[in-house]
Amino acid sequence: MAKMRIWSLVFLFVGAGLWYSTYTLVKTNDSETEWFPFKLGLDLKGGAELTYKADTKQLKDTDVVDSMAAVRDLIERRVNTLGVSEPVVQTEVGRNGDQRLIVELPGVTDLNQAIQTIGATPFLQFKIERLTAEKEKILAEIKKYQEIQSKKGDLKGIDMSLLVQDPYYVDTELTGRYLKKAVLEFNQQSYEPVVSLEFDADGTRLFGEITKANVNKTVAIYLDNQVISTPVVRESITTGKAQISGNFTPQTARDLVGRLNEGALPVPITLVSNQTVGALLGDEVLAKDIWAGIMGTLIVALFLILWYRLPGLIASISLAIYVALMLAFFRLIPVTITAAGIAGFIMSIGMAVDANILIFERTKEELLGGHSLADAIKEGFARAWLSIRDSNISSIITAVVLFWLGTSLVKGFALTFGLGVVVSMFTAITVTRTFLFSFRIKDSSVTKFLFGHGLTK
After folding, report:
1. Is residue 249 part of a domain?
2. Which of 329, 350, 338, 309 is nearest to 456 (CA)?
3. Which residues face 241 on adjacent strands?
4. How far apart are CA 126 and CA 225, in angstroms?
5. Are 199 and 207 in contact (CB under 8 A)?
6. Domain range spanning residue 93?
7. Which residue of 131, 230, 260, 328 lies most exposed, with the fewest beta carbons within 10 A?
8. What pLDDT was estimated at residue 234?
């Protein structure tokens, strides 16, 4: 009866895991359901990938990492408005040392809408008047350049670095990065819509320093590199509040407030490339990967049964439990499945089998040494544990390093592989051990043969 209860619990557990991990919950339309109900990555589900280049020239080297992290968070918030499941937004350094932002949007079919939504995030800047000497120098250089251009003369004597600078205003540290909130208001005299800004603690300090140093001067407010307001500073402002006025209609002012509150970028970004991955290609890759996993698991199970006999059969059942647990974890966490992630999962199956092989080989050695079947199983687990522990810990360390330092594709592989190694230790040591000791088979030539005795000389 005890054995029946154990086996009933096992089949119930495996059945529940398989049901939960494969049951379809998401419908694609009214008449069709999704056949693989997991969160799929861009390479399997299809979608769009956008690459942006960030302009960090005005930032200090120590501020670049924090600013790019802020850009990533803000863009991710913007992307979520598209209803994209599991978008991937990450930063990387290009070959030329430039900062780049990679946006992966699984399932997105309207590429123009995605570009428009991401690009709608405004870049807010506050600039102060340039010194008169610097202004005159830049304007003189621009005039000289225009004269030479009109005569089609030689431009060797032109300082090109001056031509790209704003002759009237210079940048400050105060940008939309320090914006706390924006509010739509109306001027009490002209009834024109204005946008009121409130900065956070650092922004309040910076704004106070700027206004204190520029009393009776203008401070230009730039939005997406365009001047929208040049108010005159009458006194130092330490409250951390400012106003943007201009040729706003109530609707455009309301839109600007919404965009600013959703997140003004700390640095400007420019779209440099975009590409789409077709859903048909993704379906083909997914089908091949799934069949590869199924065939690989079946072949491994067949090898275990033929070579290790009864322990091999138990290991195959343990392997089925392992697969059910992994698929259930993929749904629970949830894990975004990519082609690399499936590869990591399949490799972890090999790690799960490796632990069982070590245990069975140790058990056979103990049987050959004259031990009883029960003692041989007990010693086999005890002696194999140290090797299993050390090999699995080294694999987990590798997975952690890959996840920490790798790109998104490598992280998908590392996550499924590392999770698989951890689960495989549980199934190999706990599940297989419980099954083997539950039989309580008496010593005989038949039972020893079933446990692999005689396979090794």
Report:
1. yes
2. 309
3. 198
4. 10
5. yes
6. 42-121
7. 131
8. 82
Q: Which two tokens stand for residue 282?
A: 């993704």
Q: For 389-421, what is each residue's pLDDT tens digit? A: 888 888 889 888 888 877 666 777 888 888 888
Indicate the residue type of 406. Answer: G
The residue with tokens 């204005």 is: 194
Same-domain status, 207 and 347: no
Higher pLDDT, 46 or 69: 69
User: C-alpha angle with apex 225: 222 to 230, nearest 5 degrees?
Assistant: 25
Is 273 a member of any domain?
Answer: no
Q: Give the whole-angstrom CA distance, residue 49 versus residue 127.
A: 34
Q: What's the length of the chain?
A: 457
Q: How confident is the model at residue 19 (pLDDT cuts 50, 70, 90)?
A: low
- How far is residue 304 from each of residues 78, 297, 311, 365, 385, measured CA to CA in Å? 51, 11, 8, 17, 19
**Which CATH number is 253's domain given?**
3.30.1360.200
- pLDDT at position 294 is 82
Output the domain CATH number for residue 304: 1.20.1640.10
Q: Is the model's pLDDT at 29 over the cut of 50?
A: no
Residue 457 lies in a domain: no
**Residue 257 shares a structural domain with residue 289:** no
- Do 113 and 155 have their domain in common? no
Q: What are phi and psi of 86, to 5 degrees?
A: 55, 55
Largest CA distance in the chain: 106
Main-chain dihedrals φ then ψ at residue 223, nearest 5 degrees: -125, 120
CA dist 80 and 64 (Å) reads 24
Give the integer Cα–Cα distance in Å for 172 and 174. Answer: 5
In-domain check, residue 9:
yes
The total of structural domains in the chain comes to: 3
Residue pair 167/142 in contact (Cβ under 8 Å)? The answer is yes
299 and 378 co-located in one domain? yes
